[in-house]
Design goal:
Strand content: 5-15%
Number of helices: 16
Keywords: Repeat
Protein name: Leucine rich repeat LRR-containing protein
Number of strands: 15
Oligomer: single chain
Shape: globular
Distance between the termini: 62 Å
InterPro entries: Leu-rich_rpt, LRR-containing_regulator
Organism: Nitzschia inconspicua
Helix content: 25-40%
Pfam families: LRR_6 (PF13516)
Length: about 425
């Protein structure tokens, strides 16, 4: 058991499993249950021989029913197993399937209360026509509150046979997060899915990474229209759309959509790593960054940007408006490229994180880049109009600089030196002569 989650494993004895069920009922701190390779059986009792079989333990439905009847749980995770009893799912608010085999005759609406189910993850499942039809019914339900649907690695490539699921996306009004990552979707198929999300009233996150649209795919055009037309979309993951092909993904339409001088879509996070982008696309990217005030996080990792592309990016740092986090890991530029970023950081006060390869971060020029980023986090933008630091600002600078250490461990995997930051801050503000006197 870890904190609030209680684990049931198929290798455990029936007695131990029954004791855990009692704990689940009696302990108010338990809010999540995880069943790993548990076989649920409608039989009133299991035979002795069956109980002794290490990989085929049977948990009596009567005991489980009492658990789910006496109290609801926030989340139930099912790993492996088969023949899941409907009672398992009836009072669940968050349901997560991971590599779960559902019998072909099963239908999800018989198991799920659509007025309670908020999250549904069906990663790596084989979706039978019956399951697809059940999903479509859930999405169409007037009582549906489903906010997160993860269909990653479900191989929806033959979506022509599953158009009922696709069309249900247009009728749904509750979804906020949708993942079709690694579903073997190609351009036309992916385009049909995206077109059914146009004007969706609540969608916030969309993940279509690790699929295979054509080089100049209509799917990119449709995604651009989705970003443009949807007033709620804040996160889009288009990573590795050329995975394994060696080809470059044409994202020009997307860049133009996000570079409009009169309207910035609400998108805040864009992941386009692993698409074989080259220096030739950097001009489109910097145009987007200088015109778009809403985009805050851009992932350009695992592409083909050399020092030439980084030079163009560096020269436009002064004009970048909204971007706060930039991921440049696994691109073929060198320390000279990092130095170009450093040379132009004085003109930028918005960037707080630039991810570069670990070896670059440890080098002196990498540390210098880190100092500039720490300064921006510490409030350097407040000094643009003055060379004098107000006394009231110093506590804020120190507080934010100290908080930066927590942020850095997560974003940059490095610990900034507070002393270095303050010294660099003072030097930049031309206060050293005053302090020395």
């Amino acid at each position: 058991m870890t904190n609030n989650r209680l684990l049931f494993e198929g290798s455990e004895s029936l007695t131990n499993l029954q004791k855990k069920l009692e704990t689940a009922v009696d302990d108010p701190n338990i809010t999540e249950l995880e069943f790993s390779d548990i076989t649920w059986d409608n039989a009133a009792a299991a035979t002795t021989d069956h109980n002794k079989h290490e990989n085929s333990r049977t948990l009596l439905v009567e005991d489980a029913n009492r658990v789910f009847t006496e109290r609801p749980f926030e989340k139930i995770i099912i790993r492996g197993g088969h023949g899941q009893h409907p009672r398992t799912f009836q009072l669940v608010r968050k349901l997560c399937f991971e590599r779960l085999q559902i019998l072909p005759e099963s239908r999800l609406p018989a198991m799920v209360d659509t007025s309670k189910l908020v999250e549904l993850s069906m990663i790596s499942m084989s979706l039978s026509p019956e399951i697809v039809s059940s999903l479509a019914e859930i999405l169409r339900s007037s009582s549906a509150v489903l906010q997160k649907l993860d269909l990653s690695d479900t191989h929806l490539g033959g979506i022509e046979e599953r158009m009922d699921l696709v069309s249900s996306l247009r009728e749904n009004r509750s979804l906020r997060s949708l993942s079709f990552s690694e579903c073997n979707l190609r351009g036309e198929t992916l385009s049909r899915i995206l077109s059914h999300l146009f004007d969706h009233p609540s969608i916030v996150n969309i993940d279509i990474s690790y699929n295979k649209p054509e080089l100049t795919s209509s799917a990119i055009i449709d995604l651009s229209q989705l970003i443009w037309n949807t007033t709620t979309l804040e996160y889009a993951n288009l990573g590795f759309l050329a995975f394994g092909s060696g080809r470059q993904v044409d994202l020009s339409q997307l860049f133009r959509c996000l570079s409009d001088e009169n309207y910035n879509p609400p998108l805040k996070i864009l992941e386009i790593g692993g698409n074989n982008l080259r220096d030739e696309q950097m001009l489109e990217i910097v145009t987007m960054l200088t015109r778009n005030e809403n985009l805050q996080h851009l992932d350009l990792s695992n592409n083909g940007f050399t020092n030439d592309g980084i030079q163009l990016l560096s020269e436009h740092l002064v004009h970048i408006k909204g971007i706060r986090i930039l991921d440049l890991v696994e691109n073929p530029f060198d320390l000279h490229g990092v130095q170009m970023l450093v040379d132009h950081m004085d003109s930028n006060t918005t960037l707080i994180a630039i991810k570069i390869d670990e070896g670059f971060s440890a080098a002196p020029v990498g540390r210098d880049l880190g100092w500039h980023l720490d300064l921006n986090w510490g409030g350097a933008h407040k000094l643009q109009s003055s060379q004098v630091v107000p006394d009231s600002l110093w506590p804020l600078i120190l507080e934010r600089t100290n908080k930066k250490a927590e942020l850095a461990s997560a974003l940059l995997e490095r610990e900034p030196s507070v002393e270095d930051v303050i010294f660099h801050f003072v030097r930049k503000c031309s206060l050293l002569p005053l302090l020395s006197s």
